Amino acid sequence: MDAAFGLLGLGAPCAIHFTFSGCEDGSVREFVSVDKRRPGFGMSAIGGGVPGDGPQQQQQQQQQQQQQQQQQQQQQQHQQQQQVPQAKQNQDSNGHHRPTGKVLIPLFGQNESVGGTVTIVPREPKKSMQHLGIRAEFVGAIEMMYDPENSVEFTSLVRELDAPGTIGPGPAAGQTYQVSFANVNKAYDTYLGINVRLRYFVRITVLRAQYAPNVVREFDLAVRHRQMPLPKGISSDEKDNNPPIRMEVGIEDALHIEFEFQKSRYELTDVVLGKIHFMLVRIKIKRMEVEIRKRESAGSGNSVYNDTDTIVKFEVMDGMPLLDASDVGGGSDRVLDGEVIPVRIFLGAYTNLTPSYRAIHNKFSVKYYLNLVIVDEEDRRYFKQTEIQLWRGQ
Q1: CATH architecture type of domain 236-391
Q2: Which pick of 88, 151, 152, 224 has the fewest CB atoms within 10 Å?
Q3: Where in the chain is the domain with CATH 2.60.40.640?
Q4: Do the Cβ atoms of 120 and 206 come closer than 8 Å?
Q5: pLDDT per residue over 242-280, tens digit each?
Q6: Residue 34, SS3 per DSSP
Q7: Are 300 and 355 in contact (CB under 8 A)?
């Protein structure tokens, strides 16, 4: 229990704050919105963030701190008056409390150094706080949600910030440290899945006496890699390495549909272009859909957890298509010769898409599939699917 309180910072003798440094090139850092309440939510990027090193960064940080202090003071002053409205803010239609759990975390590139400012502030400014050292650690971890024993930390880099000593007392009792992790290994993208998550974070630890729990706080960051459409050393011939997709859905003497898409590898902002050809239809079609499905496989051996989720559902057709003129007035057979329906899906509209991942640290894989679904009037389903590969170029 004490260890849990130490990790959460509840009842701890000090508060730990960490501010990530700005971009090395002076540009504005991007943030991503993450729902930490439960896994499975993708990360959506938003503009803005922490600017580069310099006076502008310090001014923005000071403004943010002042705004936070003002908000806290207002909440304390009007706590009783606002108690009822605040309680209703995150309630569902049944009146149950539903915390959002959404946080903003800074976004870093693959080769970018990670650093920032650590501030340790005692809870009681009039008393000094003794410690056995202060440590900062950059960690990259793969956490198995349903099999914690197989979780692993694949990256760990430690910086000793302070030797054993005392912080406080006094009006300015807080102690500030600068920390930097240069050339740190960030081999993989940040990933939040259903059964697994890959996260990077900076862990700050204040070591205390033998029978007192350490004070620990973790500050997450996101990592995204810019990928090439093809692995190194492979020819960029479009026909050889990004072939079109051609498949058929058929039942003998009842259904024959062919569909084709221009390529099998897509950047996350690409447009999926394709055509569906009706060759033979002797069943009454109720609707037709094209789906993009995500399949996550986490674990290894006998402890593999698979999860399939439909990310994109695109309705191609509602009801039967127009019949060929040769079929008018003739019997019950419905023969469609040469009817074509175009398909166009804008991947950039779906922020929860990720690149395809294969055997990340031998712990998990993520694959995507194009799935054609046909439903007849008796609700029988006919489908065909093929794997596609997604990659991030920007």
Answers
A1: Sandwich (2.60)
A2: 88
A3: 14-33+102-223, 236-391
A4: yes
A5: 889 988 887 777 788 888 999 999 999 999 999 988 887
A6: strand
A7: no
